[in-house]
């Protein structure tokens, strides 16, 4: 039986990878490099290579899933879906989510845009996050470092999504089709400002947009627009715990200490504030 080709490329030799059989559990290239899916459905391309970055732990991913499942970031997911529809008119959608986490935004985009068919690639260094993303239909979930060459073919993606994740604009440009768009989400300086200090979270630096524009322009990606989204979230103690623990601060926060902090705070009205930036290849 001939291999069923994909738009994923081998991280060893850059040749196209295909599924060995209909079960979609093994990826092979013509050079014989083989990658078997974990029992949870994701593929680990970092085996033997490793990364200098810390993966989000199982507890951090559980906290993110719990927070997102409560709908606190649903307005952001809707905004992303609007922009995908604005910048992609086709009935099929080939999308790469670089730094996908649990796949929450990717799932919401697919649910809201309802393309006739789609081919999705979700990348993250966390195995625990990719276990969840692998459950999405027609989605290949890969454990991979976004700073490295992205394991997908040149000009293979209509949309590159990059939410609260490392930016690799040279690779984003390479994998985008000429008519494609890269959508980048960053936090604004007032994002979560009511709880940053009491929960020992990391703050958002000023000047994000200017730095992004310069970095992406150097790789021939032109800034087209930025939409700002700000709203208030009513968060109880469990929400506050998950909010703090799901992000980068989760690598150094003590769960026991954090529980004490959120209990003393009680229910809070917290600002969510995002910049949603759209870049397209220079023509």
TrEMBL record:
Q: Does the keyword Zinc apply?
A: yes
GO MF annotation list: metal ion binding; methyltransferase activity
**Single GO BP term:** methylation
Domain 23S rRNA (guanine(745)-N(1))-methyltransferase N-terminal span(s) in chain numbering: 9-46
Q: Which residues bind Zn(2+)?
A: 29, 33
User: Which intervals hold domain Methyltransferase?
Assistant: 95-180
Where S-adenosyl-L-methionine binds, per the record, is at 73, 102-103, 191
Look up keyword Glycosyltransferase and say if it applies.
no
Give the record's keywords alphabetically. Metal-binding, Methyltransferase, S-adenosyl-L-methionine, Transferase, Zinc
Q: Which domain of life is it from?
A: Bacteria
One Pfam family recorded for the sequence = Methyltransf_25
Name of this chain's protein = Methyltransferase domain-containing protein
| Species, as recorded | Glutamicibacter mishrai
Q: What is the lineage of its organism?
A: Bacteria, Bacillati, Actinomycetota, Actinomycetes, Micrococcales
